Amino acid sequence: MEQPRAVVIGAGIGGLTAAVALHRRGWHVTVLERAASLEPVGAGISLAPNAQRALDVIGLGDDVRALVAWQGDAGVRVPSGRWLTRINSAAAARRFGGSMVLLHRATLVALLASHLPEQAVRTGIAATPADPGASGRPARITTPDGDIEADLVVAADGINSAARRVLFPAHPGPVYSGFTTWRVVVPALERPFAPHETWGRGRLWGTQPMKDGRIYAYASATVPAGSRAPDDEKAELLRLFGTWHHPVPGILAAVEPEDVLRNDVHFMAEPLPAYHRGRTALIGDAAHAMTPNLGQGGNQAIEDAIVLAHHADPGRTDLAPALAAYTRDRLPRTMTVVRRSAGAARAAMLAGAPATVLRNTALTAVSRLAPQLMLRGFDGIADWRPPVRTYAA
């Protein structure tokens, strides 16, 4: 019998995970990527235990766990360097079933792509759903080389998803969060440091070590949408963060202006009516873009991919029940994470002096008197476990 065909639009983290998972279930998979090569946009990605367990389903969880770089304490600081909170990584690992792993996006993309058949990923091809399909007809995708038909289409085409606009043209899409972000990767520094986020007034800095010795750093600031530095983004970071505590000045000294990535942050304030239509499913930022404050954007895309493949039985000609089950499983969970992440962003990006003082005082008190409460922010998120197929299935 001819293998059913699945086409994945987008070769980011979510798209490649979906491709690997569907391939393992028995689908013939083609990935269409607009970019000319598999060079991921971004720098680092943090994979929490929930995403690691999702990757266990396709046999890659232990490969990711082997890249853990830090197993000591971490926490939140103020620009002078004083600690507001400290989180014990061993306690977090016990609570959620594993440690946080920080790795470069390119590393994860290469790992996922290596588990796909040759020629499965086709780069330099812009693809848009022309017809989402239905029970009696395949989905149809438009490309510069002509139309492609598929039994299943997975749209993993990011926050500005063309597929989302085709499937749900009346939806307003993501909205601006009120802040922009910068991301850099630099070589190791001589002086050691503990992973941390530093919260100022309307500004945030984070520094995380990676397994290969390099450092991933990110920053945020409340600015009008579309703002850009008058000179270059390294100069802008120096103006905003140059006087903050170690290792911030050393990282800024090590980075080249052209290596600074800057993106305004948008998120899905209004949920979509569904994550599918016909034979087409949305995953990742295309479905539920979120702020980066809980580090769950890529994690939720990985979860999406595994749950979608779990329901998408290649032996069924009618995928309507499977995709309805995918929406039922994923929409409430992911929108809960979107809202919780937006709440964390509001707390971290407070700009007023009185509110900032109250926030810092509360964080310090909770950290000293009830440190276990600091971990509760990830309850219901990092402890997620993937679905398991029944014996009959």
Mind telling me which CATH architecture of the domain at 5-69 and 101-174 and 269-347 this is?
3-Layer(bba) Sandwich
The main pleated sheet reads as:
7 strands, mixed
Mean pLDDT: 94
Write the CATH homologous superfamily of the domain at 5-69 and 101-174 and 269-347. FAD/NAD(P)-binding domain
CATH class of the domain at 5-69 and 101-174 and 269-347: Alpha Beta
Q: What's the β-strand tally?
A: 18
- Bulk shape: globular
The radius of gyration is 21 Å
Report the structural category.
Answer: alpha/beta
Q: What do you see in this structure?
A:
This protein has 393 residues and is α/β, with parallel strands linked by helices. It has a domain at 5-69 and 101-174 and 269-347: 3-Layer(bba) Sandwich (FAD/NAD(P)-binding domain), CATH 3.50.50. It contains twelve helices and 18 strands. It has a seven-stranded mixed sheet, with helices on both faces. A six-stranded mixed sheet has the order 7-2-1-11-18-17. A hairpin with a 5-residue loop joins strand 14 and strand 15. The longest helix has 29 residues, at 320-348. The radius of gyration is 21 Å and the shape is globular. The protein starts with a strand and ends in a 24-residue tail after the last helix.
What characteristics describe this protein?
six-stranded mixed sheet; alpha/beta; FAD/NAD(P)-binding domain; 393 residues; seven-stranded mixed sheet; 18 strands
Write the layout of secondary structure elements.
Elements: E1 5-9, H1 13-25, E2 28-33, E3 44-47, H2 49-56, H3 61-65, E4 74-77, E5 83-87, H4 89-96, E6 101-104, H5 105-113, E7 121-123, E8 128-131, E9 139-143, E10 146-150, E11 152-155, H6 162-167, E12 175-186, E13 196-199, E14 203-209, E15 215-222, H7 233-241, H8 248-254, E16 261-267, E17 276-277, E18 280-282, H9 285-288, H10 297-311, H11 320-348, H12 353-369
Parallel strand pairs: 1-2, 1-11, 2-7, 4-13, 11-18
Antiparallel strand pairs: 3-6, 4-5, 8-9, 9-10, 12-15, 12-16, 13-14, 14-15, 17-18
Helix pairs in contact: 1-5, 1-10, 2-10, 10-11
